[in-house]
Structures are given as structure tokens and as C-alpha cells.
Amino acid sequence: MSLEVDNLLLESLKEVMDLTPNALGFFDRDYRLLYCNDIMASVLGKPKEQAIGQLQKDLLREAYNHSIGIKIDADNFDTWFDEVEKTQRSVEYNQFETDTNEGQYYNVTRMTLSNGMNVIVGANITELKKIQLTLTQAITDIEQLANTDELTGIYNRRYFIELSEKEIGRAKRYAHPLSLIVIDIDFFKAVNDSYGHHVGDTVLSYFCKQCNEQLRDSDTLCRVGGEEFAILLPHTQVNHAGDIAERIRLCIKACEIPYDDSGSTLSITLSLGVTQYKEGDINISDLLIRGDKALYQAKDSGRDQYVVQL
Ligand SMILES: Nc1nc2c(ncn2[C@@H]2O[C@H](COP(=O)(O)OP(=O)(O)OP(=O)(O)O)[C@@H](O)[C@H]2O)c(=O)[nH]1
């Protein structure tokens, strides 16, 4: 091919490079930028004319220092860059995803050609990434919805069963204690009958908020029935769970629950059943049966108390 054709081809290629939506950069064997298109220049955070001729390391350091172009999530630039260089030296080809401070996402392919030149191609995947992020968020929202009790905002029975199976598995494997408290509001029907169902709803929500404030982050309160609740307490011996049950009972008994705009309040009491996982238990039903037995004993003995059933 003649030099004239070569030059023509080169000019055409440069024009095509600026027409593609992807980032393209050509580096020499020392990673000095020989040529790039405008999109690669924007990824590097400076105009093409200023970027060409500079070393990859200097370009990336500037992007890092000024938070322009490629996002470099590192506490120390030099340590991060050492790793980049190590990869570039050890393999002829690698691929990774990156994003920019301007909100663009790229799937980057880096390759070393047989003549020693290094080519970096970044396929713009911003739209795809946005769809992916929306989908991930939607899945999280659906899961949240499926696991949450609409009225009180706490976890529902479905989540309780799922969590219990996991925690029982852990308790078995690591021989950790696991306790369960089941709670039933006393004479709740009377609350509904005297004040109306909407006040009953207010009381349920109020109870959940107060009860949650008594718990550690690792303890989980769930609504397992109408006015029945369960708390799963990993790493907790049953006598300690009994103390927690008593603390909740006293806290709720002391509450003056506001139920209308005029400042009127009402009070409730709780009956609680406490038990723990023991060898031979197969699933959460075994604990729930014992917890319910304890709860009924508490009801039979006059309510407003907790009973432990081993
Ligand atoms: N307001 C309201 N009430 C509910 C909800 N779910 C269940 N209930 C009511 O809770 C009451 C439970 O009553 P019972 O099981 O008879 O027991 P209780 O009156 O609490 O009496 P003891 O449990 O024996 O102390 C019923 O009246 C249900 O209608 C709810 O989401 N909102």
C-alpha cells in the first residue's frame, strides 16, 4: 500500500474513532498515550490534545486528584496503580467495569498487541447499567414488601420462618444458643370492641415501636399473627431471654398509648412465652409449640407475665 493510502486510512480511522460511542485509546509499550478519541479523553478527564503524549499513570493520577473522569475508589493512588500495572504486565488481555465521576459506565477491555502497543477499548454500558440498577432496586423493594407487615412495618410471618430456619441452622452448626419469645397482647379484642378497630391498629403499631426499642439489632421482632408477635434472639440463653421478656412486659405496661388528637391514652399488658432451641429440634415449629405452651400458661396464670418453657 502506498503512503498516501496509509495516511488516508489513518485519517479515516481517526474520524471513525470519534463517531463511535465507545472510548478508544492507543498507548505505546511504556503506556504513553499515542492517540485517543474524544470519549476516552473524557474518561481521562481532559481534552484530547492535552491527554495525548502523557503517561497513563500521570493521566490517572490527575483524574484521581481532581475527581474528574474515571472514578478511582482507592485510599492511596500509588498502591492502587501498582496493582493496575501488575495486571497489565502479567496478562496480555484483561477486562473490567468502571464508571466515571460524570455518571458513565464502561466495560473496558485492555490488550497488548504483538507490536507491543496497548489498546484500551471502553464499551459504554451506561444505559444497561441504569436498567440493571433499577432492576436490582425493584427486586430489593419487592423482597422488602414481601417480608414486611403492612400495618406495623415490622417483619411478617413469612420472613420470620425464613430467618428462623437460617438461625436454627447456625445454632446447630456452631452450638450457639438461640431463644424465642412469643408475645400476645392481653384482651386485645376488648381494645377493638371499646375503641374501634382503627385504635386497635394504632396500639399494634405503637407496641412494635416500643418493643423494638428494647431490643438489640441482632434480635428480630416479627408479627406472626393478628396480635401475636415473636422475637428471635440469636446467641441468647433462655434465662437472658426471660430477662428481656420481663423488660418488654414492664416497658409496655408503663406506656400510656395515645390514640386520638385530644390526648386520650390507654394501656395494655402482655403475656409472653419464652423458650430456646434444644438438641432434637428440627425446625421453628418445635420452638413455636413450646413458646405457645408457655404463653398459654402465662394467660392461664392471670396474664401480664412471662413463662419459660424449656
Ligand atoms: N385492630 C386490629 N385487631 C386485630 C388485628 N389482628 C387481629 N386483631 C384482633 O385481635 C383480637 C384477638 O382476640 P383474642 O384472640 O380473642 O384474644 P384477646 O382478646 O387478646 O384475649 P387474650 O389473648 O385471651 O388475652 C381479635 O379481636 C382480632 O380481631 C389487626 O390487625 N388490627
UniProtKB/TrEMBL annotation:
Report the EC number(s), separated by commas if there are several: 2.7.7.65
Q: Which reaction does it catalyse?
A: 2 GTP = 3',3'-c-di-GMP + 2 diphosphate
Domain GGDEF residue range list:
176-310
Which is one GO molecular function term here?
A: diguanylate cyclase activity
* InterPro entries assigned to the protein according to its UniProt record, in alphabetical order: Diguanylate_Cyclase, GGDEF_dom, Nucleotide_cyclase, PAS, PAS-like_dom_sf, PAS_4, Rev_trsase/Diguanyl_cyclase
Q: Where is the PAS domain?
A: 9-54
Q: Which cofactor does it need?
A: Mg(2+)
Q: Name one Pfam family in it.
A: GGDEF
Q: Which NCBIfam families match?
A: GGDEF
What is the name attached to this protein's record? Answer: diguanylate cyclase
